[in-house]
Amino acid sequence: MRYTKLNYYLSALGLLLIAATASAQTDSIKYNHNEVFAPTPWPVTGDGTRSASGQPGEHYWQNRADYLIKASLNETPQDTTITGEVTITYTNNSPDILDHLWLQLDQNLFKPDSRGAATTPIGGDRFDVKGFSRGGYHIESVSVTYKGQTYKTDPVISDARMQIRLNTPMGAKGEKIQVKVNYSFSIPFYGADRMGRKKFKQGYVYEIAEWYPRMCVYDDVEGWNTLPYMGLGEFYCEYGDYDYYITAPASMTVVGSGDLQNGAQVLSQLQQSRLAEARNSDKTVMIIKPEEVDQAATHPFKGTLTWHYKMQNTRDIAWGASSAFIWDGAKVNLPSGRKCIAMSAYPIESAGEDAWGRSTEYLKNSIEIYSNKYFEYPWTSAVDVSGVALGMEYPGTIFCLSDLKKGGLWGDVTHEIGHNWFPMIVGSNERKYMWMDEGFNTFINEYSTEKFNNGEYFNSKNRPADGIAAFMRRAKDPLMTPSEAQNDYGQYYFKTAVGLDMLRNVVLGPDRFDYAFHEYVKHWAFKHPLPYDFFRAMNDAAGEDLNWFFKPYFFTTDKIDQAVGSVKYVKDDAANGAMITIVNKEKMAMPVDLKITQANGKTETIHLPVNVWQRDAKWTFIYPSTSALQSIEIDPDHQLPDVDRKNNVWSGK
Questions:
Q1: Which residue in 216, 235, 258, 354 is deepest, having the highest Cβ count within 10 Å?
Q2: Coil, strand, or helix at residue 69?
């Protein structure tokens, strides 16, 4: 968004700021300066794990989970299932001895008696479980290996969580334990808009996620994080290395998170050659062309094939499989000079230059833009899969809806891959603090859309703050409300993004904001920040106490309503200056931008800092006019979600 250079009229230049004593509108004023500017102590964690400056502390620790997964996709006329075996090597870096472990069983959302099913509205919603009667995990066996001893155990399963009670408590500070789980589940047709299967002319497309039992996070704040998966609230995962094998019918192409390890065993010579070409091409290269999908030479193998992928230092993985895939790719150029590959896999129904034919272009450019602006993409591949999910993100793999085109597809791709920065690199708790991933990501999407292809899909006239004003007028719940309790989850995306816009464009300016935001990302990459770490990091690096903003904007439903109260000329002569009174009518405070137009044609925008509201809801200042004022407008660029814009404008008429 545009940032207007600010002019501060100080006393040395002849501008006097005086307390508001002139008559002004006083009706319906809700503002209380003592509430807004009261000291705000954020919660602190013990033992120096997090610093007062918003960085990981001297004694910060984080547990780790490494995965070896062997799974099969079994396609039959009656059903399609996943059967698998996962071996988790869990490292306890905490100072605590663990008597038990907790794992997430996300597929249990689709059991008819799950909490998510019980709380789905009658009319359904985007995250509906769709009454999948065969849903949920079938846990065949669980075994534990610790200190050279292996034993089977009977887990305690509660909704979408599984507790493993250990025979011998697990030691602290680097101790390792192995957990092996054999499991299976039926693939839902509609997996709460996060995964599933969809039929196309040339076969089903399977988007597979939440497909293996995985560790809950044990952190320095809450110990085990065991909020159940209920649909809207997403995920909170430990980092580790993934080594996984997918066995599928030989007629299918399997794409997924990380790097294919055995291309020579699963791809034809032509496909291997094209894949190598794509890795070195800035233009999209077809690996499987539309006309080749049904050809025998495209899938020359019989029976089943096992695809082997690896991905390092990631918090999750996902994959797609289909006999209907067109497959293409292109090189991604990263700031360090490192290269990676962007790819897309989609059925013929999605093809076309106004549709998925540009998916890889969108993916490549988004990764390059985010890498240059925020943090370099740490992995070596990314793939976009077309299917049933409207839009869902995983490290290195995103799912986008099959019928999207043009700007709709661009928006979906740049948003879902943007999640690889928030929360895949900066690993926040999505289930509790949804705004920290959806909102931060929506904020960086504004930047990528402005930069992509000279703003091909960017609308400079779009004023998102005006839309957020409508959110704020009707909001029942603040941003800090956990996702499953939120009545209007759209504000996680847009209210957060507009809040960051305001900090960048109105409060701090681009240089100070960008530096502070980069510091936050740099220090919390591959770690688990809390909201309070973000607040502290921004305050520290920007050199500004922003708690007057963070407290009402994230913890309340307070609103913004700035108004022009009155105008009076000094000694009744405009040539002597104009005393302008402004009023803060609602509970939130923000700096004030005023566009002032004089009768002589002179127009300028002045900026008053938020501090003018530190003592009262009204402020009067002298503007050095030389002729009568024709008009005054507060927030002329519509950067604030002001809930009543009618009182922003004063006319000399």
A1: 258
A2: strand
Question: Shortest CA distance to 216 belongs to which of 434, 429, 484?
Answer: 429
Strand partners, 345: 327, 385
Compute the distance between CA of residue 6 and CA of residue 506 in angstroms, rounded to an integer.
Answer: 9
Q: Which residue matches tokens 């307070």?
A: 558
* Dist CA 37 CA 380 (whole Å): 47
Furthest-apart CA pair in the chain: how many Å? 94
C-alpha torsion 275→279→280→281, nearest 10:
80
Output Rg (C-alpha) for the chain, integer angstroms. Answer: 28
Kind and range of the H or E element at 651?
A: strand 649-651
Strands 161-170 vs 98-104: parallel, antiparallel or unpaired: antiparallel
The DSSP symbol for 427 reads: -
Tell me the three state secondary structure of residue 201: coil
CA dist 272 and 279 (Å) reads 11
What's the pLDDT score for residue 4? 28
CA distance 559 to 553: 8
Averaged confidence pLDDT in the chain: 94
Burial class of residue 254 (count of CB atoms within 10 Å of its CB; 0-12, 13-18, 19+): buried
Overall average pLDDT of the 88-102 stretch:
98
Report DSSP state, residue 432. Answer: T
pLDDT band at residue 9, thresholds of 50, 70 and 90? very low
Cβ neighbour number for residue 367 with a 10 Å cutoff: 26
For residue 51, the tally of other CB atoms under 10 A from its CB is 18
Tell me how far apart the alpha carbons of residues 550 and 527 are, in angstroms, rounded to a whole number: 22
- DSSP letter, residue 356: G
Query: What pLDDT does 101 receive?
Result: 98
Residue 468: alpha-carbon gap to chain centroid: 18
Say if CB 607 and CB 578 are below 8 A apart.
no
Instruction: For tokens 């050659």, name the residue.
Output: 273
Provide the terminal-to-terminal Cα distance of the chain, rounded to the nearest Å. 32
Distance CA 433, CA 492 (A): 9
For 108-136, the three-class secondary structure string (H helix, E strand, C coil) is: HHHCCCCHHHHCCCCCCCCCCCCCCCCCC
What secondary structure letter does DSSP report for 642? Answer: B
- Strands 578-584 and 562-569 turn out to be antiparallel
CA distance 506 to 609: 9
